[in-house]
């Protein structure tokens, strides 16, 4: 009937007396749907990611030093004699540097006959070239570094060194990563949480539960990062990991 309020389903809470949009009377009490605070599903709640960095300076624990040399001769016997003389000079040098012979291994021996190449020069004389490599493997990093600095003594003794097949100096490796991983992950995670807490504080929010975590990838970097300097050339290195964590905001 005209002038009577419509029958509406009761929901929400009873509000104070005010104009009811469902009635023509300004003195009618009606139930207006109340606004309820509904918790958002987890996948719609705001999140904040924090990144934490952990770095540690470490010392290499293994040195690999390939010593490559070349000997030539007009005959195979001549080239072989020169190669043997160079090998004797290198072994004497390493002994003088207090490097144990057990840490030295003969890896590679290549013999080339220049006249046996597919396209030899018509006037080129026959020549034999012997390339030989010795590998020094040692955990005494300081001793290898010192010996590498004195490698000029080999040149003075008539040894022809070569770097055609890779780096000529020592390569320094660090194999203790698994020993420091747990502590570094804990440090990076704590740093990431601190970063997220600071953001939440600035946003006048509270940090909630953990949504996702990524421990990151460990990197072994040269301590002194400069163009042309590789990690393997430096015995002192920097281990770095960046962890990312996501937290819900409340």
Taking the sheet with the most strands, its summary is: 5 strands, antiparallel
Order of helices and strands: EEEEHEEHHEEHEEE
Q: Give the integer mean of the pLDDT values.
A: 79
Count of helices? Answer: 4
Q: What share of residues is helical?
A: 10-25%
Report the end-to-end length measured between terminal Cα atoms: 49 Å
Oligomer: single chain
Work out the strand percent: 25-35%
Structural class: alpha+beta
Based on Cα principal axes, name the global outline. elongated
What Rg do the Cα atoms give?
A: 38 Å
List the helices and strands and how they pair.
Layout: E1 13-14, E2 31-32, E3 47-59, E4 62-73, H1 76-96, E5 104-113, E6 128-138, H2 141-149, H3 152-156, E7 160-161, E8 171-173, H4 177-202, E9 207-214, E10 219-222, E11 236-249
Keywords:
elongated, alpha+beta, 11 strands, five-stranded antiparallel β-sheet, four-stranded antiparallel β-sheet, 250 residues
Question: What would you note in describing this structure?
Answer:
The protein is 24% helix and 32% strand. The strands form three sheets. Strands 4, 5, 6, 7 and 8 form a five-stranded antiparallel beta sheet that branches. The relative contact order is 0.21. It has four helices and eleven strands, in the order ββββαββααββαβββ. Mean pLDDT is 79; it is low at 8-38 and 40-44. The longest helix has 26 residues, at 177-202. The protein is elongated, with a radius of gyration of 38 Å. By secondary structure, the chain is an alpha+beta fold.
């Amino acid at each position: 009937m005209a002038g009577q309020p419509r029958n509406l389903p009761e929901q929400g809470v009873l509000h104070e007396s005010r104009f009811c949009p469902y009635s023509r009377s300004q003195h009618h009490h009606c139930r207006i749907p109340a606004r309820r605070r509904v918790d958002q599903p987890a996948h719609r709640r705001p999140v904040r990611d924090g990144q934490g960095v952990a770095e540690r300076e470490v010392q290499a624990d293994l040195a690999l030093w390939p010593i490559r040399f070349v000997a030539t001769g007009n005959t195979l016997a001549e080239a072989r004699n020169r190669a043997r003389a160079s090998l004797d000079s290198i072994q004497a040098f390493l002994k003088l540097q207090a490097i144990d012979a057990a840490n030295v291994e003969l890896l590679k021996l290549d013999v080339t006959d220049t006249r046996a190449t597919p396209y030899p020069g018509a006037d080129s004389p026959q020549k034999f070239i012997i390339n030989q490599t010795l590998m020094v493997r040692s955990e005494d990093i300081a001793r290898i570094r010192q010996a590498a600095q004195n490698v000029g003594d080999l040149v003075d003794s008539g040894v022809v060194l070569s770097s055609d097949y890779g780096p000529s100096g020592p390569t320094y490796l660090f194999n203790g990563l698994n020993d420091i991983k747990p502590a570094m992950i804990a440090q990076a995670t704590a740093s990431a949480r601190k970063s997220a807490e600071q953001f939440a504080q600035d946003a006048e929010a509270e940090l909630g539960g953990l949504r996702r975590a990524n421990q990151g990838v460990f990197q072994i970097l040269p301590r002194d990062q400069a163009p042309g300097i590789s990690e393997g050339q430096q015995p002192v290195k920097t281990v770095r990991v960046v962890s990312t964590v996501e937290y819900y905001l409340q």
